[in-house]
Amino acid sequence: MDQTQIDTLRGKPVAAFHHLIDGKAVPASDGDTMNVVSPIDGQVLTTVAAGTAEDMNAAIASARAAFEDRRWAGQAPAARKKVLLKWADLIEANALELTVLGVRDNGTEIGMALKAEPGSAAATIRYYAEALDKIYGEIAPTPGDILGMIHKEPVGVVGAIIPWNFPLMIGAWKLGPALAMGNSVVLKPSETASLSLLRMAELALEAGLPPGVLNVVTGEGRVVGETLGLSMDVDVLVFTGSGATGRRLMEYAARSNMKRVYLELGGKSPNIVFADAPNLDEAAKVTAAGIFRNSGQVCVAGSRLLVEAPIHDEFVAAVTKAADAMRVGDPLKVETQIGAVNSETQLQANLGFVETAVSEGGQIVTGGARILQDTGGYYMAPTIVTGVTQKATLAQKEVFGPVLGVTPFATEKEAVALANSTVYGLAGAAWTANLGRAHRMVKSVRTGVMHINTYGGADGTVPLGGVGQSGNGSDKSLHAIDKYVNLKTAWIKL
Ligand code: NAD
C-alpha cells in the first residue's frame, strides 16, 4: 500500500451517487437525498439517493423484466462466465479506488479493507464464475419406462440486503452465486456504506452485465428495504445484518408471497482459552486482533473470552498488552490497526454497553472510552471488561464494537456450557494442545464456524453461516449456490 496514492484518492471530492436502476444512474423519484457522513472526521462526504418505495418497485420491475426475457439467464454459461471474470478483473484493477471510497464511507482500517473488500469480492465473483458451468442437473434412477430428471433453474429475482461493515465482501457473497446461476438481483446496501458498492455495480455494467440484471437502490431500511421484503415479485430474500431486521424480513415474507428468506445475523462468539494452549502469547495477540480489528464490527468477532481460571490473570494481562499496542486512528493511514466506528449512533451504543457492564459488576481493565474526539470522527479505545457473569448483558447481547468481556471457567464441561449459553451460534474458538479436547470442542460448541488455535479464516471455499439466532443457510463455498436455484423435476415417458 502506498500512502501517497491513498492520500491523493482521499483528497478527491466525491460526486453525488444515484441509484443504479435498469443500467442507469437514477435519482430518487422525489429528488430526495441523504447525507453520507464520514466516520473519519464526522464531515459530510457526499449524498446518496434517499430511495422511495416507487424507486424500489422500479428496480424490482427492471430485474423482473431482465429475468423474464432471459437476457442473462438465457446466455450460454461460458458467456456468463466471461462477463463475471471480467468484472472480477475490473474490481481488482480499481481496488485501491474502491477501498479508499469505502473507507471514507464506513471507517474500516485500510489494511484490512483492501484485502477484505475488493480483494475478497473479486475472488468470490471469480470463484462462482468458474463454478457456473460445472453445476447442472441429474438423471434419477427411476424405474421402468419413465425417466425422472432434476433440473437446476435460477430462482428469478433475488432481493439482497446488506450491512455496513464489509459491503463489497458481503455484497459479493450474495451477488456471485446469484448472478452465476442466472438470476437478476436488486440489492439494498446499508444507509452508512453504499458508495463503494454502487461503484462496484457500475463496474459490472462495464464488464458486460446486461442492464436490469443488477440494480442497486439506496435509502432507509424501513422504506426501500421493507418494500423489497414485501414485494410479490421478489422470489428470494438474502440478508446479512442484525437479528431484529432478520425477524422483520421473515414477517415480510409471511405477509407477502412466502418468498424464501436466508439470514446471516449477529453473534456473541466464545473464544475459549485452556491452560494447555500451545502458545499463550500468540493466543493473546490473535485474541486481541479477533475482537478489535475493524473496531469489533465483524460478525464473527470473538467477543466473549472464556479463560481457564489458573491462567486468567496472566492471560488477561497478555491480551491487554496486545490491545494497548494496537494503533487506533485515521483508517486511511497504512499503519492504523483499528479504524473508526461506523457512526456516532454505534459509538454511543458501544459506550452504553460498557456502562451497563460496569453496573452489572464488570471491571474495565483497559479502554472503555471514546478517543480522538478532536478529529470530529468516531473512535473508541479497545476495551476489556473482566468479571462478566454468564447472565450479564455483555455475555448475552452482541455489541458489534471493540468490547471484550472476560469470564473464567473451571472445567471443560463448564467452558462448553458457558459457550452455548446465548441465543447465538455464529463462530467460536478453542485454544488447547490436547487433540482429543480440540475435537470435542469442535463437536460440542454450537456454532457454524469453529477455530482451533487460531481465530479467523477468510477463504471462500468454506461456508460461513450460523445456527440458532445467528441465522440460517450460509454464504460462501459451493453450498451457497443452493439458495439461488430451484430444483425442478421432469418426468419423461419413454
Ligand atoms: P441492520 O440489521 O441494522 O441493517 C442491515 C441492513 O438492513 C441495512 O441495509 C438496513 O438498511 C436494512 N434494514 C434495516 N431495517 C430494515 C427493514 N425494516 N426492512 C428491510 N431492511 C432493513 O444491521 P447493521 O447494523 O447494518 O449490521 C450489523 C449487524 O450485521 C450485526 O448484527 C452483525 O453481526 C451482522 N453481520 C452478520 C454477518 C454474518 O455473516 N452473519 C456479517 C456481517 C454483519
From TrEMBL:
Gene3D superfamilies: Aldehyde Dehydrogenase, Chain A, domain 1, Aldehyde Dehydrogenase, Chain A, domain 2
Record keywords, A-Z: Oxidoreductase
Pfam families found in the cross-reference section: Aldedh
Coiled coil: none
Keyword Oxidoreductase: yes
SUPFAM superfamilies, A to Z: ALDH-like
Presence of keyword Oxidoreductase: yes
Every Aldehyde dehydrogenase domain range: 29-489
Active site per UniProt: 264
Entries under InterPro entries matching the protein: Ald_DH/histidinol_DH, Ald_DH_C, Ald_DH_CS_CYS, Ald_DH_CS_GLU, Ald_DH_N, Aldehyde_DH_dom
PANTHER family given in the database record: ALDEHYDE DEHYDROGENASE-RELATED
Protein family: Belongs to the aldehyde dehydrogenase family.
Protein name per the record: Gamma-glutamyl-gamma-aminobutyraldehyde dehydrogenase
Annotated source species: Shimia sagamensis
Lineage: Bacteria, Pseudomonadati, Pseudomonadota, Alphaproteobacteria, Rhodobacterales
